[in-house]
Specification:
alpha/beta, Rossmann fold, 43% helix
Length: 105
């Protein structure tokens, strides 16, 4: 399967940092090779140039960016979705990891 890179995107990059940690822990537990990081919405373009991203998950607070970001990656294999609201609210790293991995397959 190889390493999967999942980028979480939120308003300022702060609210998703705890979720990233929980996702990393869940990946480690399951023996999944995944690189997971968060970035503020304003830095998405820059990160897409620097990173080999497989999927982008948007925090519920920036769901309005979904169409915009989908257009940016339309000519790539990168998949974009909004993080499940309940999983986000509960900071359920395993569930959000699963969502990101499903997207990137």
């Amino acid at each position: 399967m190889g390493e999967k890179t999942i980028m979480l995107c939120c308003a300022a990059g702060m609210s998703t940092s705890m979720l990233v940690k929980r996702m990393q822990d869940a990946a480690k537990e399951k023996g999944i090779d995944a690189r997971i990081f968060a970035c503020p919405a304003a830095e998405v373009d820059e990160k897409l140039k620097q990173e080999n991203v497989n999927s982008i998950l948007l925090g519920p607070q920036v769901r309005y960016l979904l169409d915009n970001i989908k257009k940016k990656v339309a000519d790539t294999s990168i998949k974009v979705d909004v993080i499940d609201m309940q999983a986000y609210g509960m900071m359920n790293g395993a569930k959000v990891l699963e969502q990101g991995l499903k997207l990137s397959n």
